[in-house]
Specification:
The complex is a heterodimer of chains A (288) and B (271). By secondary structure, chain A is of the alpha/beta class. Chain A contains 10 helices and 12 strands. Chain A starts with 13 loop residues before the first strand and ends in a 7-residue tail after the last helix. By secondary structure, chain B is mainly alpha-helical. In chain B, α1 packs across α7 and α5 packs parallel to α8. The longest helix of chain B is centred in the middle third of the chain and has 35 residues. The relative contact order of chain B is 0.14. The chains are: A alpha/beta (288), B mainly alpha (271).
Chain lengths: 288, 271
């Protein structure tokens, strides 16, 4: 059951959706896709809600839910033609370019029953993006794929967001995938959003945990405090740890050199998504 | 993309018709229909030796025998039930139902659109079936002496046959909607088909004409030149009128569609 799940996606943003089994990820995806109707609350795409303008809402939505669905006896071309006709956008050029985009052009007239898992996943993605959606919902998009296919799908999702401005919401258990592709990650537990975190692509203005290894830790602390009042530097073992923005890091390094302090190493202490996940949800394997 | 309020029913029907046509089994059925019909005609002429024990002046004397022979093999009926039941549950079987329910398409449009698409294929196949019978029989018996009255009887017969196959198709499709797998859908549709075969045996006299509208029904009365030998074989079915047929078709398929529709629109698609 979902209790409090509110979030927005910007154009071209890729957002990961993470939580333990039974946390409400799939239910949230199903509510957004209109497969489950919420008792209260609403979902909106480009100003259209599912309740008041279901057609306009669904026209802007692309979906890949769980295992890739397809008709085994039909070809890739048949699948796209079918959906294109339903969505009133049938055109051989559009179908060919979409098959090209997912790398299935050479297999367009092969029956799907002869496709590998990766090819089916690419076809599912093609069906989801054929009509140029504004929001793309992907539930476990790399499930069951080999490393090469995983990289292909990841690259493709990145291109769709970057080149076509499609907002993408991805639910997956593979945290590394989210770390590599997403701009932001949302953590859900017990049907509630418990936290969110901006990842690499949007991190420029964020405060990072930084480690300075110098020949004089005490003076280094003084320099850092002088450059940034909010840095809270502390000596740990033989190095100094503090919180700084990237521009402040540059300023501190310049000042250390000016003070003739020997700087051996400056690096960001990055917490992996897995560490954040464990900190947020713990390591217990119970299903919520 | 626009804030388009127009219905998606017509595009969905087009898409479904094209999708069903893309299925190899549908193309195969249409392609082998004339071949199968030739075998029925050959059987009537070469094995049953029809001209030896019935007066055959032209194709309209032979056509009822050919059609009866072809109809009782259940080739057409089996294909219609299979196609309708398959089409009703193929999305649920392969998970496409979730994708389709996320399209700008209401569930009512989905149920109606798919039913109409199946209807179009059933009509096409029935016309190929009937057209082949007429063509092959004409090749064997010739068309000398064919009158406008004969052609109008054939037209009425065609109409009756179409009503019957549509009822069969819509009923099988509607019952298939109750199930989530192709196997379950086929079992349900064929179970009903078999039940219908025996229904007439248990019906009252009042209901008999309606229960007789089942897979073996054959509107012979529209062939006035029907020989007495054949008329005696199928005497039960000659009493049915087009109105009997239409009422029974509407009642059976309408009831089945109502049940299938209510079940489908209230179904939890996520299961």
């Amino acid at each position: 059951m979902l209790k409090d799940v509110s979030f927005e996606l910007a154009e071209g943003e890729i957002v990961g959706f993470v939580g333990p089994n039974g946390a409400g990820k799939s239910t949230t995806m199903k509510v957004i896709t209109g497969l489950v109707f919420p008792d209260s609350g609403m979902t909106r795409i480009c100003g259209f809600t599912l309740a008041s303008a279901p057609r306009a809402y669904r026209e802007r939505l692309g979906v890949l839910i769980e295992s890739p669905a397809s008709y085994p006896a039909l070809t890739a071309w048949d699948h796209l033609a079918y959906l294109a006709r339903i969505r009133k956008c049938y055109s051989p050029t559009l179908i060919n370019s979409t098959l090209d985009r997912v790398g299935l052009r050479d297999h367009s007239h092969k029956r799907v029953e002869k496709f590998s898992t990766g090819m089916r996943q690419r076809l599912a993605l093609a069906m989801a993006v054929l009509h140029g959606p504004r929001l793309l919902i992907l539930d476990e998009p790399t499930n069951g794929l080999d490393p090469a296919a995983t990289i292909e799908i990841r690259t493709l999702i990145g291109e769709l967001a970057r080149d076509h401005g499609i907002a993408v919401l991805i639910s997956t258990h593979v945290l590394h995938e989210i770390e590599l592709i997403c701009n932001r990650v949302l953590f859900i537990r017990g049907g509630m959003l418990v936290s969110s975190r901006v990842l690499a692509a949007n991190e420029q203005k964020e405060v990072a945990r930084v480690i300075f290894v110098t020949n004089d830790p005490e003076r280094t602390v003084a320099v850092i405090s002088e450059c940034s009042s909010t840095s809270s530097p502390a000596i740990q073992d033989s190095h100094v740890e503090c919180q700084l923005t990237k521009p402040d890091v540059a300023r501190v390094v310049v000042r250390l050199v000016e003070e003739a302090i020997g700087v051996y190493e400056v690096r960001e202490k990055r917490e992996s998504l897995e560490e954040i996940y464990v900190r947020t949800f713990g390591t217990s394997r119970h299903v919520e | 993309m626009s804030n388009n309020k127009s219905s998606y029913l017509l595009p969905f029907i087009r898409a479904e018709v094209a999708k069903l046509w893309a299925l190899p089994i549908v193309r195969l059925a249409v392609a082998i229909s004339p071949v199968a019909m030739y075998l029925f005609v050959a059987e009537v002429y070469h094995i049953d030796k029809l001209p030896l024990h019935a007066s055959v002046r032209n194709l309209f004397d032979a056509l009822p025998w050919v059609l009866f022979d072809a109809w009782k093999t259940l080739f057409l009926q089996m294909f219609i039930v299979s196609l309708a039941a398959y089409a009703a549950s193929v999305e649920s079987q392969y998970g496409m139902i979730r994708l389709l329910c996320a399209q700008p398409l209401s569930r009512t449009e989905y149920v109606l659109g798919k039913g109409v698409a199946i209807s179009i294929h059933v009509t096409a196949l029935t016309l190929v079936f009937l057209g082949s019978a007429v063509a092959w029989t004409a090749l064997y018996s010739g068309v000398q002496g064919v009158s406008w009255a004969d052609l109008s009887h054939l037209a009425i017969y065609t109409l009756a046959l179409l009503i019957l196959v549509q009822a069969l198709g819509w009923t099988a499709y509607s019952l298939g909607l109750l199930r989530r797998t192709i196997g379950g859908s086929l079992i349900t549709a064929f179970g009903f088909f078999i039940l219908l075969t025996f229904a007439a045996a248990f019906s009252s006299d009042r209901m008999r004409p309606y229960f007789l509208v089942r897979y073996i029904f054959f509107p012979w009365k529209y062939f006035p030149g029907l020989s007495s030998e054949l008329r005696s074989i199928v005497s039960l079915y000659t009493s049915l009128t087009l109105l009997n047929l239409l009422l029974a078709a509407l009642m059976s398929s309408g009831l089945a569609l109502a049940i299938g529709y209510v079940s489908f629109v209230n179904r939890d698609i996520t299961e």
